[in-house]
Model the fold of this input.
Amino acid sequence: MPPSCRLSPPAAAGPHDLMPAHRLVSRLAALLLTLLLLPGPALAACQLLAGNGAPDRLPLLRAALARDEVAIRYIGHSTFEIETPRGVRIATDYNNIHRPARLPRVVTMNGAHSTHFTFSPDPEIEHVLLGWNPKGGPMNHDLMVEDVRIRNLQTNTRGWDGETRQLGNSIFVFEVADLCIAHLGHLHHRLTDEDLARLGQIDIVFAPVDNASTLRLDSLMAVLKAVSPRLVIPMHAYTFGSLDGFTARAAQEGYPVELSQTPGMIVSRGTLPARATVRVLPPGG
Done:
């Protein structure tokens, strides 16, 4: 059995994390007054329902995430913004083209080509994690940033010439709020039993569905079956009907397919779908 990658709940807030009592009371009172003044239909209009009946709530609806919640926004191509309960923001495959509106604290990158990395990230970004070693050889990450553990599993890629590039890609795994989220990056081959054991139990997968420069559909579906997440979120190169081809194939293989109305969602272990589901987020977060 693959090991679980669950984290214990984040440690209790320290003295520097606590808001002064008078400010907390003022904020709560203001929030309560705002909610009371909102008309019923307007409040209901903010609750955009996803296909499984869970609200696709926008982060602006409240001041902070609960300790068991993670916010995910699809920015575009293979870039997602992940926000943790303690406010750590992560941008995947950060490339200075598809950038979240807010500066991330952590960015991950892959070396497939320039739409997956940049050598000139904003200097204010605290952690810049390359998924490949520009000098060759391994590039291993395993670090804690507040309430999220970030680690990687390197895989091989192939160049435009068809030659294999050893360790040219990383699957980044984010362990937060009792969830394990895996970004497959620019994956070019099926995973071995050893790869799957190192990944552990994965709940949410960001999967490249271009059916061309990464995995062909047969191989991608085999990878998803082996990883067996509860939620699959498509990414990468929505061109030439690739998204439609993927969702049709996924439905054929028994995955419910949900089309979200917004690029953002908030998820927790309690709101994961009961069966493996594909959820399509529109880019533009």
